[in-house]
Design brief:
Strand order of the largest sheet: 2-1-5-4-3-8-9
CATH topology: Glutaredoxin
Strand content: 25-35%
EC number: 1.11.1.27
Pfam families: Redoxin
Order of helices and strands: EEHEHHEHEHEEEEH
Number of strands: 9
Shape: globular
Protein name: Glutathione-dependent peroxiredoxin
Family: Belongs to the peroxiredoxin family. Prx5 subfamily.
Domain Thioredoxin: 3-169
Length: 172
């Protein structure tokens, strides 16, 4: 099943690497219950094929980091980056991309969430295994309000600027 506008996010757990211990968050990989984490919030979720890959590192993540304040101003409570990588890789990538306090870097190591939303990208022939399709969605209280799925090899509709326009339109 492919997720669509109006659907609830599927139940599942993503992993987040926490470098600085805070109340309720221990160091190291922590489970993020998707339903609980999205409840009562407006969340901009974007997913991509892989940490440290060219377009993802040069454009996708930096765009969301740069648009953090504008997205917050448009009513977005949190920004999540989801990739079929383990929490340790996502943590290292978060440091590299300077996402702290702006974008939650969530690992979907076994692609369970990616499969549940129907956004699997099979890059086995290119030596990269099962990955996530590049997409973004605006989620309000666990319900998908917008969904932007990229065509093969494209980066045109899942970017932060598109998400910002959609968040602003939803806020009106």
């Amino acid at each position: 099943m492919t997720i669509k506008v109006g659907d609830k996010l599927p139940a599942g757990t993503l992993k987040e690497f926490i470098e600085v211990e805070t109340e309720g968050c221990s160091l190291g990989p922590n489970d993020v219950d998707v339903a609980k984490a999205a409840a009562g919030k407006t969340v901009a979720i974007f997913a991509l094929p892989g940490a440290f890959t060219p377009t993802c590192s040069a454009k996708h993540v930096p765009g969301y980091v740069a648009q953090f304040d504008a997205l917050r101003g448009a009513g977005v409570d949190e920004i999540w980056c989801v990739s079929v990588n383990d929490a340790f890789v996502m943590g290292a990538w978060a440091r590299d991309q300077k996402t702290a306090g702006k974008v939650r870097m969530l690992g979907d190591g076994s692609a369970a969430f990616t499969k549940a939303v129907g956004q699997v990208l099979d890059l086995t022939e290119r030596g990269m295994g099962v990955r996530s399709q590049r997409y973004s969605m605006l989620v309000v209280d666990g319900v998908v309000k917008t969904l932007n799925v990229e065509g093969p090899g494209k980066f045109e509709v899942s970017d932060a600027d598109t998400m910002l326009k959609q968040a602003q339109a939803l806020k009106r």
